[in-house]
Amino acid sequence: MAAFTEAAHAVAHEPHDEVKHVRMNRLGLWLFFASDGLVFALLLSARFYMNGTDTAPDVKQWLGLIITSVLLISSYTAYRGETALHHGNVAHGRLMLMLTILLGVGFFAGVVMEWSIAEFTVSEGYGTSFFSMTGMHAAHVASGVLLLFLAWRKAGKGYYDGGGLKAYGVSGVVMYWHFVDVVWVFFYPALYLIK
Amino acid sequence: MTRVVRAPIVVGLVLAIIGFAFGAGVLGAIRTARGQSFWEIEVGMSVGYVFALIGWLAGVGGWQHWGREWFGLEAKPYTLTGWKRYFGFSPDHKVIGIQYAVTFIVVFLLSGLTAMLIRVELMRDGKQIFTPDQYNAAMGFHGITMVAVAVAVLLGGFGNFIVPLMIGARDMAFPRLNALTYWFVPPVAVLLIIAVLMGGWESGWTAYPPLSSLHTKHGQVLFNLAVITFGLVSILGGINFLVTIIYERAPGMTWSRLPIFVWGAFAASLISFFFTQALAAALLMVLLDRIAGTSFFRQAEGGSPVLYEHVFWFYSHPAVYVMVLPGFGAALEILSHLSRKPLFAYRWVAGAMIGIVMLSGIVWAHHLFTSGMAPYLHAPFLVLTEMISIPTGLIFLGAIGTIWAGKLWLQTPMLFALAFIFNFLMGGVTGIYLADVPTDLHLQDTYFVVAHFHYTIVGGEIFALFAAIYFWFPKFTGRMYNETLGKIHFWLMFIGFQLTFIPMFRVGIQGMNRRIADYPHEYAGYNTFISLAAFLLGSSFLFFVWNMASAWLKGRVAEPNPWRASTLEWQVSSPPPEHNFDEIPVITDTPYGYGGGPAHHRPFAGGALATEEG
Amino acid sequence: MRRDFTLFTIVWALVTAASLAVAYFILRDMSFPTHGAEEASVIDDAFMALTYLACPVFGIVIAAMVVALLKHRSSGPNNGDGERILGTGSLPVVWFGVSSLLCAIVIIYPGLTGLFELRDHKDPDLRIVATAQMWAWTVEYPDSKVKVFGAQELVLPKDETVEVDITSIDILHSFWVPAFRQKMDAVPGQINKIYITPDRVGDRESDAAYRLQCAELCGLGHAIMTMPVRVVEKAEFDAWLKQQQSVTEAK
Ligand code: HEA
Ligand code: HEA
Ligand code: CUA
Ligand SMILES: [Cu+2]
Asked: By C-alpha distance, which of C96, C13, C25, C106 is closest to B429?
């Protein structure tokens, strides 16, 4: 292979390079989603393996509906925030990120509430699925909130001024948020709706 | 004094201790508030550990060089130089490669010594040195540490060092992530050692519940935490390799020009990034059953131990190919360069590796033939498992086609690579006996299985590992090892290995089951023989350690390309310059230009790249 | 090249013949523990069939290595290169075809055929229930209410098909008598069945293959979780059962 011709064009810091960098980050992130998604998939399968298709009669349907809506809306605000920051509209972007954070915290609070009023225990079959699935998901939500908060702060310090590729960090965080949201789209029916 | 105190490892340790105290303290406060005792050992250790891990990673450099950026601060520059780089947070893939390689070889020797103790105990029937408890601790420790070595040493050590060089890249895709990933490893080792000091755990490396979820000792919790942490290493490392190989190839380095070792690393990374989560999930379920009171494995609540077996093997079967695929790559690479022949049937071999990846995910239940799983699952898993022999056979075709009519230069790495072919043939073919349900019903959980997997892992991967160590030693260190000592190591290891593990097949068929500290007197003869042979095998590593230590410190200075090999890593100085290539090379042909192909083995001038056209 | 192929063929034939001979004359008689049940034939035959098939495959690889090692050594990197054989021709296709065929054979015989033979439903003459716990076996003869436990003996009649219902009251264990070959895990809350037809008289005292051995790691007492097994003629078995019954009633 050592048949080399002239040296390639200099590599350092061409704009072309930054595009490649973002592409690499994006691929890395997607691979991470695939990998992390498998944990959720396994928990989901374990739920059906253990409990078949019965739901516990006493999950709080109204609460489930509320937190699900909250999470879905937060995906929309996250998307708005990302777009705004990409277009260099920092103020609006930050507002939207903050809204997302609040909605995320709201979701988390909903889960905590659900946990404290649940009429089944963790050692019952259904409780095992319910608590482990919502727990694992809530841990992801919490880390997502933390990441959104860091992005919000950095936006405030002017890191994303000018938008475009500079705001890639926000895209990464927001993609993560969507991922966590999509997971819930599978978990919600499995935990609440199936009869 | 302040220099010592500021050393990354010291800072990491201090923050780890603080983290542990914080985590355990907060947990204790919550527990007290709820009217429970402040300290409950298993929950306390788990929660404390999570914070200790964060503290450790931040302390060794994760915060200084990376974390600060997340908070909008400036990351600190890398200031460590010389040997100190190896004890700090370094984004250089060559430093990280050596960190992995040295760590895991030390763990290998430690775990090998444990195996020697196991053989002392098994030398005769009755009790020799271990109580059954201590035996289980030793066996579990040997099993899990060796599995960790096997999964990570070639990929982590050699993959990191060699792959970027081979594809003409300046570094891995995510250098800082790479550094962080390595620093997950020491906590794994520490946890396992503490677990052994606390009396170990009783469930081997497979941790089947309900033994692991309801019984056994506190060490089980540490085991689970260690393996989950190790899972992260595997996942993050795998992602890094995939992105590197996809995006960082030099111009002209097309997929059909990748050296075969890169293909091996790529295939193994595909498995480790995707499947490792299942291992983490399985052990997390066990952990939750222990510390949070869930019922994943309690029959009365709909849980089932067979569920665990499925999830566990869903990862742990593919994991054996994470071990052996880079081994295939390294061995084939060496066979080609030291036979001075192009790799035979290159495309078939690369395709076979991907074929193995695809099949590896759908054969796991061959570990469950005697588990009482639904009978209709037996036939499909028998068929799928045996189909893996087809792509694996193609790898063998590549190997023997490559040495056919070559110019075999029988230096130490070549001897190891040739032994790899023989050993893995034995291991692979005996795998078929296990995949065949009727024979497996008898052989499952006997020493036949032990012999099978030592032939595949030790005979296959570990022999390939030593081939790789000797082959790339001059590139890693800039010095040459001692050939005579290398050959002594090889012959002792090869003969010792055969004598140790061949009799295990026999005693297994005869009815000796595995994971026992004591056995019926009838099997004592074999076992004495096996133990003596194992000591011979063990003694070979004394020559290895001596050779490596003396060569690294005062060996002959190596040329850039002592093997006159044609891949890119040999076209730069030994050890390679800091950023690998002054100019990124442009590739115009396949990696194996032997026998009238494109140019190769150009003499080297001052670390610059050879620029002649072929 | 030509001479290489001749040598290859000779070595291949020799290695194959030698390994077949070893397999046929030595392994077949020496490897297995005592053949103590009809079902053992399926397993032993499968084992030997796989061994015979492995011999020529083994021979190919060894022969290629022998040729390379005998005729193509070199003392250094500067003695020129090997021939530039890329393997892009039809050889890989042939290899792929032949190994697929071989694989298909192995899957069908001894794989699937053996599996279905063992799976064949049999009408048991006797049913026993083997219950595992940490770290001892309890075997019950439900029809006669006899129970044996721990270091007592598991006694079975010769030439009768026995259904073994295997279960556990705590964690995973596994039921295995080497002389009978088949093995099955004891899973809490689940009953797994195997069928055994002992066809030879034997006992633990003279033969380690006649032991019920736990074959799934179960902690501290795993190694010693065994129970001696004795296979006797039907008449003797009935007498033993009677005697046990009276012992039970006396209690
Ligand atoms: C590197 C590690 C490694 C590798 C590569 C393999 C490879 C294989 N293994 Fe192995 N295995 C282990 C490590 C490995 N194994 C471990 C660690 C365990 C035990 C775990 C535990 O319980 O603790 C285990 C256990 C294990 C079992 C379960 C045993 C039991 O507990 O009951 C089975 C059953 O099917 C099995 C099968 C196979 C098969 C079919 C292959 C195949 O991939 C082999 C394919 C290769 C060949 C067949 C040879 C070359 C092919 C040719 C020359 C072509 C022609 C041949 C034919 C057509 C047949 N293995
Ligand atoms: C990479 C994987 C790997 C490797 C390399 C080995 C290597 C060896 N193994 Fe191991 N083994 C496993 C993976 C591995 N094993 C696994 C997964 C299990 C299953 C565990 C379970 O059931 O849960 C197992 C189980 C296992 C058992 C069965 C235990 C049981 O079921 O009860 C035995 C028994 O003989 C054994 C023996 C050996 C021996 C003799 C070696 C030898 O090859 C070791 C040789 C190496 C050395 C001897 C090192 C020598 C070091 C020195 C001489 C010191 C050097 C000097 C300095 C430190 C300065 N192993
Ligand atoms: Cu019971 Cu092992
Ligand atoms: Cu497997």
From this structure: C106
